[in-house]
Design a protein that fits this description.
six-stranded mixed sheet, mainly beta
Length: 406
């Protein structure tokens, strides 16, 4: 059985949340005065974490239908704070956890603090130009910050590391993990002001699920890519097989697409590829472009593996998904190009608007504005932006991946 987690944003700005344990660990962006709904199967556990300029803040930690058939949840500021968050079972206000005015109480305590206290917290308490607190760092990393937060929030939120590794923790923290009343939908509410849950549903209600490929056919026999074109026009796609492949390195092919296919509007096509194929597919042949990188048969497990990359630019959203029934998928579906800052834009030779490379190529060096923008609206968990690590690999044991372009 599955219930839902309703994440409500009562603020006047869009708010991003990390989602751990549900939505295939993909962030969500909740619009102002709106709510989103995330399916949460019984027995699952995870966290909803508010992000502030890329920094983790207040979080609701939730286990659905745990011991005794009850939900268990708490509101934690262990990794930081930059807004107000509460969590409770729907229509059960007595189960509420969290301080709905945490940031206001934090700022009041800061304004009352003597200079010595402020000096001792200067590395972990961040203020605006008027001296008001806008964010704190992870409490777990600053013992003096834990003592300061306990002066106004003890018993209202999880502050310390709790009972862990032989430590008994703080009793008031441990009490935050008390059981709810049975197994119900969970309400998580965010606000810059009062984060008490709304008395009626805010609109619109967004249904968030991790993007799953819309296959118009079952995964076919043989190896290759199921290519889905979600646009309202016919689109050509080019496959580029690497010139060479090494241990974590590859010789990217920019000049010789093989094959190039045309997929009709809102249509799908299977593209058979040999198991030796290691490379990418992109819209057309010009850069900048979003890349779906993949190999058909990895040497270690003989499965197909892939990811989405924005390192050579972005000309729209894309996802890559397994077709073996595992449900693995990654990438993003949001339209991010039209609203990008102009300094992040580098049009294609044909004039199509796109976002510039983040790593550089023969046309230009790395574009910092594009890096900053994509880190904020996409994040490294969903697509490679600056290389390195942090992008979950999508594997499909049947050597067939689905690539969706939006």
């Amino acid at each position: 059985m599955s219930h839902n987690i309703i994440v409500t944003n009562l603020s006047n700005h869009e708010q991003e949340f990390e989602v751990h344990g549900w939505n295939n660990n993909t962030n969500i962006m909740v619009q102002p005065n709106s709510a989103c709904l995330i399916p949460a199967p019984d027995g699952s556990s995870g966290a909803i974490i508010a992000l502030h300029d890329g920094h983790e803040g207040e979080q609701a930690e939730i286990t659905k239908n745990g011991f005794g058939g009850n939900d268990f949840f708490d509101l934690s500021n262990i990794v930081g704070a930059g807004g107000n968050l509460t969590v409770q079972q729907v229509d059960e206000p007595s189960t509420r956890k969290g301080d709905p005015l945490f940031m206001q109480h934090l700022d009041d305590a800061w304004q009352r603090a003597d200079q010595g206290t402020r000096d001792g917290l200067s590395q972990c308490v961040h203020t605006d130009g008027s001296g008001h607190v806008v964010r704190i760092d992870a409490i777990k990393d600053f013992p003096q910050l834990e003592n300061f937060v306990r002066s106004f929030a003890d018993g209202k939120t999880y502050i310390g590391v709790g009972a862990w590794g032989g430590s008994p923790g703080n009793a008031n923290d441990n009490n935050q993990s008390s059981a709810g009343k049975g197994n119900k939908d969970i309400q998580v509410t965010y606000n810059d002001g009062d984060a008490s849950p709304p008395t009626s549903q805010v609109a619109p209600l967004q249904h968030f699920r991790h993007p799953v490929s819309r296959l118009v056919q079952a995964a076919p026999a043989g190896s290759g890519i199921v290519l889905n074109n979600h646009s309202d026009h016919e689109q050509s796609f080019s496959f580029y097989n690497n010139f060479w492949n090494g241990d974590g390195t590859a010789g990217a092919n920019f000049d010789h697409p093989d094959p190039t296919v045309v997929v009709g509007a809102d249509s799908s096509q299977f593209v058979p590829l040999p198991t030796s194929f290691k490379g990418r597919v992109q819209r057309g042949t010009q850069l900048p472009a979003t890349w779906a990188e993949f190999q058909i048969a990895a040497s270690n497990d003989n499965a197909a593996h892939g990811d989405i990359s924005l390192q050579q630019g972005c000309d729209g959203a894309a996802t890559i998904s397994a077709t073996d029934g595992s449900g693995r998928s990654n990438g993003f579906t949001e339209e991010i190009v039209s609203g990008a800052p102009q300094e992040a834009v580098q049009n294609k030779p044909d004039g199509t608007r796109a976002l510039a490379t983040t790593v550089g190529n023969w046309m230009s060096g790395p574009n910092q504005a594009a890096i900053d923008y994509e880190m904020r609206v996409v994040r490294q968990e969903r697509a490679y932006i600056v290389g390195g690590t942090g992008v979950p690999d999508v594997a499909s044991s049947n050597q067939v991946l689905a690539v969706d372009f939006y």
